[in-house]
Write a structure and sequence with these properties.
The chain has 4 domains: 250 residues, Calcium-transporting ATPase, cytoplasmic transduction domain A, CATH 2.70.150.10; 218 residues, 3-Layer(aba) Sandwich (Rossmann fold); 236 residues, Calcium-transporting ATPase, cytoplasmic domain N (3-Layer(aba) Sandwich), CATH 3.40.1110; 235 residues, no CATH class. Helix content is 43%, strand content 17%. Helix 25 links the parallel strand 34 and strand 35. It has 1138 residues and is of the alpha+beta class. The radius of gyration is 37 Å and the shape is elongated. The longest helix has 39 residues. Helix 26 runs antiparallel to helix 32. Keywords: ATP-binding, Lipid transport, Magnesium, Membrane, Metal-binding, Nucleotide-binding, Translocase, Transmembrane, Transmembrane helix, Transport.
């Protein structure tokens, strides 16, 4: 935190700006800026145990079982050994602690290894000499030296470098995942110091800048040096996390250190996302606590009643140490005793088991080779392990267009110049590509086919030269010429790179730039322009401009931007002609820009430049002041032309959208592109269909006009529902979502949008994308997924229930902010329809079985209470109680939850309708939970009363009685384990070797442990711990005992089997129907020898395309061309010709 230093007579106050002075530690220490020491690990050797235990006992479940453990230490309350609670609790704590320790150590080791590899120390200037020091001792205001390939571990203001004009090249992979090199440039006033240590040591500049924040792409400050002020921005700042590349050395001034660096400011806790099943489990656990309290209260009243009316007469026969004459107090004690005995109804291992299952299903995503993209060597990655089952419940998908649905590899395709010349991309099959050999600096990868544009350039038409001159000047591309004639452009966006490359090939080559100049090779002649100002691009302005002085001394402003923005900045010169061309370009899915310029008056510019310098050196409200100045000078522009850049669809996008739509997932495309471009991309990717019934386009300029349109649409929907009962294949297109900003309009818009099959929102800003996602998520309660590839999609990705990042051309910011990541949009269908669906079904099966087995296990104690005077005695052996959840039933349920498949991946993709039950929460909900409880109550009744009745007054073959407690306990627990094992066997559809091993192996382990623990040997060693001596040996050799076990198990399993069969026959699910499909077997043909001519014929063709062509069904309807968008009512509805 930055602090303003004040004398000791006044308290320190938090400042709005940060002040520091170069090479003056004494001055800077007054502000108490932190040193460059950062601790990334959470624990150390001494604090791990107490801190981790404190964190774990913040969880209610762990605290609850700790409370039970304390209760079990009270002799008057506990009827169970404390080991039955402490062993499961310790195991849960140990597993979690080991996981936390590994995670923390991996984080520490990664950071330590990274720093060790890239930065063994740093040189900083002290008393006119370079001193070597550890990074942790660097302070704010120090001037440090960085060397090539060195890791930057503080936020540093670039002062000078080994490269010309104070340039440095950095890699920001640790910040945003982008591997392409970026260029930073020092101020000219500091870059002239070079490597002069004395000049750098004498540098005493004052910095005033913003306080520490987490905005990686923004920095505002001023440098005051020798009486002059110089503006500072993020282009002058080297951030912690970047690596110096291709630069021998550079010097920089430390601005932020340690926890105040922008990287560390971004390292806070990520947005916490919880699944719908997590929220449901929390509710159900509260229900279980309530159910437990009711049971314990009932049994406590039963004990009090029994004590008052009957218990007094049994004090002679029962071995009570001290008889409690007060029945109410006895009931109070029994209440807590039953809380201990029935605690297993609250599952201690539930959350640990859930995390293990989620982790395993996450590995399946990471290991899926069918989602691996070899071109980028990028596999699918589950970046979180807590949201897997949510992938099987998605109802809405919000997708970016550029780079997500399209390739984001831009190619200059068409242009219009001066309103007359419009280039046309001829068919490559008929027209040879242009030969640019006349231009020695042309890019060999650039492809174009229309000769007329080359001829226009060669004839030196002024408007054509001005067009390409603008493209080569109005940009922020950094040319890099490492070898003579080998130019490499470092572009901020693929669009800009494509436009500059086009200008390069047509004879206007961006050769080099300095902070003050830009050199263009114009038709072979070097021309140097003086760069006076760059009016930078942002998502709100949607345009950029440069102001340059030509060699002739004239001032020019060149501007490029969106037509919707520049329309208000033009002198009306042929705008309608340009608008026609731009709409035509957009109509075939191309990305368009308009180009404009004007000549500036010298006196007016000087006045503007003075105010611009003042605004650019302002620390407060700099952006707002600059925006006003930009608006002022970008007026009365003259159109030069327009460009169209092609961005092709990714492979597999149409099929993916088709499959997801069949899965009843609604897809919304949120794009910043114009309406016509978005509509045609919508057709190309099958989002919009030829057979759609209605297309609604909300086109309005003001919120009031939008309200009229929405009310009319709502009335249309109401009438349609009343008269036709349903409205299918409706689609909504919103040219500008910003007009629906009022609260009432938002809800009405949502009503309309959610009634449509697909929605396309155009001209959407990044913040508006997040608002749309939040609107749908909040008011529909549906599970949402957002997918994008760029930094402008990060807010949308974080707002959705599930965020998916696509590794595209715009860097890795979307991936780094996502929950799941892969390289191509087409992998989304496999992520949802296969992995998401499997994860959801496995989790639901796990929860149903988990609650069933715990209720069945626990409620047997409840029925036993009626036969033991409600004295809080247990049915089972204490060792069985301890091992039931930890050993006997843990692995079988994990095997089912990790390997089970109702259908394989082929059928999951072939029949997307299988996905719908997850959207409706059909596999696990509150009703399913109640069914589990009822099933558990029934099974517990059978498990108690059948063995009880079978053993009542029975004897062995040798005449000895078997109706004793130990025999009953052994038979009851054996029946229980066989019953829950049969239940999981019935639920298992896909059997693997692990399923067989874990399920049947658990029974083998049970019998092995039983015979061992109930043996004479262990009893002789520890008599008090193993009191069931000889029980297994004496009981399990009786035929009637096995008959009892068999009948009990069958009676418990029979209802499940019967109900499953009835459901399959009367109300089969889509999955059940698919399982009944039997592929016809190919009949074997008799082998016979024929004398026939052999043929190698193979023709890759399919039947039916002839009919499509002759009927015209394969032709795209021209219904959605821009002229049809106009309507006096503001609503556009069209009947499909199909």
């Amino acid at each position: 935190m930055s602090r303003l230093y004040i004398t000791s007579k006044k308290p320190k106050q938090i400042a709005q700006d940060r002040e520091l002075k170069a090479n003056d530690r004494e001055y800077n220490q007054k502000f108490e800026y932190p040193k460059n020491f950062i601790k990334t690990s959470k624990y150390n050797v001494l604090t791990f145990l107490p801190v981790n235990l404190f964190e774990q006992f913040q969880r209610i479940a762990n605290a609850y079982f700790l409370f039970l453990l304390v209760l079990q230490l009270v002799p008057q309350v506990s009827s169970l050994s404390w080991t039955t609670t402490v062993i499961p609790l310790l195991l849960v704590l140990i597993i979690t602690a080991v996981k936390d320790a590994i995670d923390d150590y991996v984080s520490y080791f990664y950071m330590y290894s990274f720093l060790l590899a890239f930065s063994t120390g740093v040189y900083f200037i002290l008393f006119c000499r370079l001193e070597r020091e550890k990074w942790m001792h660097v302070q704010v205001g120090d001037i440090i030296k960085l060397q090539n390939n060195q890791f930057v571990t503080a936020d540093v203001l670039l002062l000078t470098s080994s490269e010309p004009h104070g340039l440095v090249y950095i890699e920001t992979a640790e910040l945003d995942g982008e591997t392409n090199l970026k260029v930073k440039q020092a101020l000219t006033v500091t870059s002239v110091m070079g490597e002069d240590i004395h000049a750098l040591a004498a540098f005493d500049g004052d910095i005033k800048c913003e306080i520490p924040n987490n905005k990686l792409d923004k920095f505002v400050g001023t440098l005051t040096y020798q009486g002059n002020k110089y503006p500072l921005n993020v282009e002058k700042l080297l951030l912690r996390g970047c690596v110096l590349r291709n630069t021998e050395w550079c010097f920089g001034l430390v601005i932020f250190a340690g926890p105040e660096t922008k990287l560390m400011q971004n390292s806070g806790l990520p947005t916490f996302k919880r699944t719908s099943i997590d929220r449901l489990m929390n509710v159900l656990v509260l229900w279980i606590f309530g159910f437990l309290a009711i049971m314990c209260t009932f049994l406590a009243f039963g004990n009090a009643f029994w004590q008052h009316n009957i218990g007094y007469y049994f004090q002679t026969f029962l071995p009570w140490q001290s008889y409690i004459s007060n029945s109410s107090f006895s009931g109070f004690l029994v209440f807590w005793s039953y809380v201990i005995i029935l605690n297993t109804v609250v599952p201690i291992s539930l959350y640990v088991s859930v995390e293990i299952i989620r982790l395993g299903n996450s590995f399946y995503i990471d290991w899926d080779r069918k989602m691996y993209y070899p071109k980028k060597d990028f596999p699918a990655k589950a970046r979180t392990t807590t949201l897997n089952e949510e992938l099987g419940q998605i109802k809405y998908i919000f997708s970016d267009k550029t780079g997500t649905l399209t390739q984001n590899i831009m190619a200059f395709n068409k242009c219009t110049i001066n309103g007359y010349l419009k280039t046309i991309l001829s068919s490559p099959q008929k027209t040879p590509k242009l030969d640019f050999s006349f231009n020695p600096m042309a890019d060999s990868n650039f492809v174009f086919y229309d000769k007329s544009l080359v001829e226009a350039v060669n004839t030196k038409k002024h408007e054509v030269h001005e067009f390409f001159r603008l493209l080569s000047l109005c940009n922020t591309v950094m040319p890099d010429e490492k070898q003579q004639g080998k130019l490499v452009y470092q572009a901020q966006s693929p669009d800009e790179g494509a436009l500059v490359t086009a200008a390069r090939n047509f004879g206007f080559v961006l050769k080099s730039r300095t902070p003050e100049t830009i050199t263009i090779i114009e038709m072979g002649k070097p021309t140097v322009y003086k760069m006076l100002a760059i009016l930078d691009f942002d998502n709100i302005r949607k345009r950029m401009s440069v102001i340059v002085r030509s060699p002739a001394g004239k001032l020019h402003l060149y501007c490029k931007g969106a037509d919707t923005v520049l329309i208000y900045n033009f002198v009306i010169n042929m705008f309608k002609i340009y608008q026609f061309y731009i709409q035509e370009f957009a109509g075939i899915g191309l990305r368009t820009l308009l180009l404009a310029s004007k000549e500036l008056n010298e006196r007016a510019f000087n006045s503007w430049q003075k105010r611009h310098l003042e605004a650019s050196t302002s620390v407060q409200n700099r952006e707002e002041k600059l925006q006003l100045l930009y608006e002022e000078i970008e007026r009365d522009l003259h159109l030069i032309g327009g460009t169209a850049v092609e961005d092709k669809l990714q492979r597999g996008v149409p099929l993916t959208i088709e499959k997801l739509s069949e899965a009843n997932i609604k897809i919304w495309v949120l794009t910043g592109d114009k309406l016509e471009t978005a509509v045609n991309i919508g057709y190309a990717c099958n989002l919009l269909q030829d057979e759609m019934n209605e297309v609604f386009i909300i086109e309005a300029d003001t919120p009031d006009a939008c309200r009229v349109v929405i009310i009319t649409l709502l009335q249309f929907l109401k009438n349609g529902i009343l008269f036709s009962n349903k409205l299918d294949n409706m689609y909504l297109i919103v040219p500008s979502i910003g007009i629906c900003s009022r609260k009432k309009l938002k809800l009405d818009f949502l009503t309309i949008a959610c009634s449509c099959e697909a929605v396309i929102c155009c001209r959407v800003t990044p913040l508006q994308k997040a608002h749309v996602v939040e609107l749908v998520k909040k008011h529909t309660k549906a599970i949402t997924l957002a997918i994008g590839d760029g930094a402008n999609d990060v807010s949308m990705i974080k707002a959705a229930n599930i965020g998916v990042g696509v590794s595209g051309q715009e860097g890795m910011q979307a991936v780094l902010s996502s929950d799941f990541a892969f390289a191509q949009f087409r992998y989304l269908q496999r992520l949802l329809l296969v992995h998401g669906r499997w994860s959801y079904i496995r989790m639901c099966n796990f929860l149903r079985y988990f609650f069933y087995k715990n209720f069945t296990f626990t409620l047997v104690h409840f029925w036993y209470g009626f036969f033991c005077g409600f004295s809080a005695q247990t049915v089972y052996d204490e060792w069985f109680i301890t091992l039931y959840n930890l050993v006997y039933t843990a692995l079988p349920i994990l095997a089912m939850s990790l390997f089970n498949q109702d259908v394989n991946d082929y059928w999951s993709l072939a029949y997307p309708q299988l996905y719908e039950p997850g959207q409706l929460d059909l596999f696990f909900n509150k009703l399913e939970f109640v069914k589990c409880v009822i099933h558990g109550i029934y099974s517990s009744l059978v498990l108690f009363y059948i063995p009880y009745g079978a053993l009542y007054e029975t004897v062995r073959d040798d005449g000895k009685t078997t109706s004793d407690y130990q025999s009953f306990a052994l038979i009851a627990q054996t029946c229980l384990l066989l019953t829950v094992t049969m239940e999981i066997a019935i639920d298992t559809v896909y059997w693997t070797a692990f399923n067989h091993l874990f399920i049947w192996g658990s029974l083998v382990v049970y019998f092995a442990i039983s015979f061992t623990m109930y043996s004479n040997g262990l009893f002789a060693i520890i008599p008090g711990a193993f009191s069931f001596i000889g029980a297994a040996r004496n009981i399990l050799n009786q035929p009637h005992v096995w008959l009892t076990i068999f009948l009990t198990t069958v009676l418990c399993s029979l209802p499940t089997i019967i109900l499953r069969c009835i459901a399959i026959e009367t109300k089969p699910t889509f999955s059940d129907k698919r399982k009944k499909i039997v592929l016809p077997k190919r009949k074997s043909q008799p082998i016979r020898r024929v004398s026939a001519r052999r043929s190698g014929y193979a023709f890759s063709h399919q039947r039916g395309f002839g009919a499509l062509i002759t009927t015209g069904l394969n032709m795209r309807p021209q219904a959605l061309r821009s002229p049809t968008f106009r309507s006096s009512a503001g609503i556009k509805t069209e009947k499909s010709s199909g």
